[in-house]
Amino acid sequence: MYLYEGIEKAEKRIRAVLVGCGEQATNMIHNAISYLDEVEIVAVCDRNPERAEYAQKRLGCAGCYLDLGQMLSEVEADCAFVVTIAALQAKLARQCVEAGLHVYTEKPLGTELDDLQALYETARSKGRKIGVSFNKRFNPAYYDMKKAIISETFGRPNAFIAKFIGGYRSNETDLLRVGSCHFFDLARYLVGEVEEVFAYCYEEQPGRHTFAVSARFENGCVGSMTFGSLGSWVCGYGMEYVEVRGDRNMVSAENGRDFTWQKPSLIAQSDTGLADKGTQAVTERSVPVEILRPNYSNLGKLALKDFYINGNYQSVKAFVSSVLNDTEPPVGYRDGLLALKLALAVEKSVSENRAVKLAEI
Ligand SMILES: NC(=O)c1ccc[n+]([C@@H]2O[C@H](COP(=O)([O-])OP(=O)(O)OC[C@H]3O[C@@H](n4cnc5c(N)ncnc54)[C@H](O)[C@@H]3O)[C@@H](O)[C@H]2O)c1
Fold first, then answer.
1. Mutate to test the pocket of ligand 1, among 24, 137, 142 (most ligand atoms within 8 A of CB)
2. Quick check: 269 pLDDT over 60?
3. Is the pTM of this model over 0.70?
4. CA nearest ligand 1 atom 6, residue
5. Where are the domains of the chain?
6. CB atoms within 10 A of CB 116
7. CATH number attached to the domain at 14-128
8. What integer pLDDT is reported at residue 302 of this predicted model?
9. The domain at 137-298+339-352 falls in which architecture?
10. Total Cβ atoms within 10 A of residue 66
């Protein structure tokens, strides 16, 4: 007889290995995965033995490795989560795909086009899936923003405004290809494909830059983005902002939170005698800004976790579902590739002081 009748044990249908046990893995990805009933973590790997052992104990799994090749040859698994060093991600992901595993990588998918191309070809020949952690798409604020933009009353987006200013970066490549890739991805996700960029760079010293980027989207929308490493990682405020404007709608989110949707103004009725005066001030009534925020008293425990608020849990879950259902991951290779191409277009625009079309990259 069971002590607790009726409690069902989760059926673990996917065996996963974790590659990388650093900060992001420990704080976000390992937690997100361990909340998923479908996934069993069977082994971890990190070049750093202390980190690997800590993750193994914390996750209670059997395998602990310092070398990816050894783990792949000894452990049977369905998929790998790669959360290592940005410049290594695509190479390590390819090694996992070569061993027959589906792969989910932290952003960026890679920092060099050649690495991405090699990963793509291996994945295609092995029939394996590639998922990319553009978790901001799943962050509730950006998720709501997307829902507002595609709603009937929003109209065509005409302006995309984004800011991401954090602290020190080892160089401008790290700022653009690694740090800012989330916002290149959000631009595509919220508005559409970018056709052309023109960028300026301010350099205070190596690792301390600000980029001002103008963009034109294929659908005619224009964009203005500022990326920087002259801010502070510890300040926490004023780091991230996104706004999209469509006709008289405007949606914004500050720091990936506080989603705001300003709905269209109401047109005054003609019986007021004001409708045909022809200026906005008299033909429109002001409407209150609608601010949508979670009602914290009604939230479950999961929705209060940082790895849920940042979208990591939902992003990992979506990838896992694609493996279980044999469908394409909702965010995958092409998204990783286009975010990198946008970063490369910005770099090219700065170095050649001209507008650069995405098609040139
Ligand atoms: N989605 C997000 O918002 C977000 C936020 C932070 C970091 N990240 C990404 O997560 C990744 C990891 O960042 P981090 O801050 O945790 O870095 P980190 O330096 O703390 O961790 C990286 C880990 O990878 C390990 N590693 C390096 N080479 C390895 C190899 N060949 N095999 C196995 N392990 C290896 C290192 O020992 C280290 O423990 C990066 O790609 C970064 O861009 C994403």
1. 24
2. no
3. yes
4. 24
5. 14-128, 137-298+339-352
6. 23
7. 3.40.50.720
8. 84
9. 2-Layer Sandwich (3.30)
10. 14
